[in-house]
Amino acid sequence: MPLAGSRLTATTPGPTTETELSVGSDPPDMIVTGSGSQTFAAALADATGRDLAAVAYDRFPDGELQASVSGFDADHAVVVASTVSSDAHVELLQLQDAVREAGASEVTTVLPYMGYARQDEAFSAGEPVSARAVARAISTGTDRVLTVNPHEAAVCDFFDVPATGVDAAGRLADPLPADLRDPLFLSPDEGATDLATSVRDAYGAGATDYFVKHRDYDTGGVAVEPNDTAVAGRDVVLVDDIVATGSTMSEAIAVLHDRGVDRVFVTCVHPLLAANARTRLHRAGVAALYGTDTIEGPVSRVSAAPPVAGHL
Ligand code: R5P
């Protein structure tokens, strides 16, 4: 009986004797996915040779969720879920519990996108540190956490178990045209400079720079302050961790067009794309908009699973 999809068959030649076959006859790992991360989880299964467990997502008449696994037969569960909504958070907690019930002795939780990570401090009296609250809850059901490009690396410290941020920004270089003209990889605020550098390095050519961003938290409005870098006639690749409302990127595009840029490509790790973000960016004149599959949607052009696979 081949150990199809197990780590054993993924990373080593197949067993050659009966004795080896009988050792650990249960597959050592299975991937269990939340409903919103099925594409990412499938890519992770392909990248690692692990099996995907069968999962059902049910909802009771009162609205409560019940996510469950069937046929789960592994010592180690890799539970994958982007916590893009409150439902996704609950579903993740349920799947962590379900795999323990099914016999997993070890759980690794993969958060392709960690929701609430931007609420990483109490900005005024009485506010929660929401990132810490959700990290603590997730920690109760897992032995470790991997999360892709968390908004701030320090968010990993909120977990009560070892947590690692995985940089998948380099994947964003893949869909770029090979003929970018004097490319500039630009982050719309200083905090995303490392991401722009990752994409530039993966592309293999070009310069990096950043704008300074100011956000008015009362109105939600964004202003980006240009630097002195000449952009006239150049192609610019904007890189950020998240595109949410599109305010940041549409403001950056407007500034760049005022300064005579050629094409502007908008790339992000997590394409949250709330409300009318795609329309705003199209109206702003974006040449192309895409992100990874940490949040699965129409602009998920590349998978962040391969760099995560390297940590499993
Ligand atoms: C915030 O600092 C993040 O890095 C992003 O820049 C932000 O989430 C983008 O939000 P929006 O698309 O709403 O401007």
Task: Summarize the SSE layout with pairings.
Layout lengths: L6 H5 L6 H5 L6 E5 L4 H11 L2 E2 L1 E6 L5 E6 L5 E5 L5 H16 L4 E6 L18 H10 L4 E5 L14 E4 L17 E4 L5 H11 L3 E4 L1 E4 L6 E4 L10 E8 L3 H12 L5 E8 L5 H8 L3 E5 L7 E3 L2 H5 L3
Parallel strand pairs: 1-2, 1-5, 5-6, 6-7, 7-8, 9-10, 9-13, 13-14, 14-15, 15-16
Antiparallel strand pairs: 3-4, 11-12
What is the H/E string?
A: HHEHEEEEHEHEEEHEEEEHEHEEH
Work out the helix count: 9
Number of domains: 2
- Write out the strand line-up for the largest beta sheet, numbering strands in chain order: 2-1-5-6-7-8
Regions with little confidence, pLDDT below 50 for 5+ residues: 1-22
Head-to-tail CA distance between termini: 24 Å
Structural class: alpha/beta
The portion of residues assigned to helices is: 25-40%
> What kind of assembly state do the chains in view correspond to?
single chain
- Count of DSSP E strands? 16
Give the cofactors and ligands: ribose-5-phosphate
**What gyration radius follows from the Cα positions, in whole Å?**
21 Å
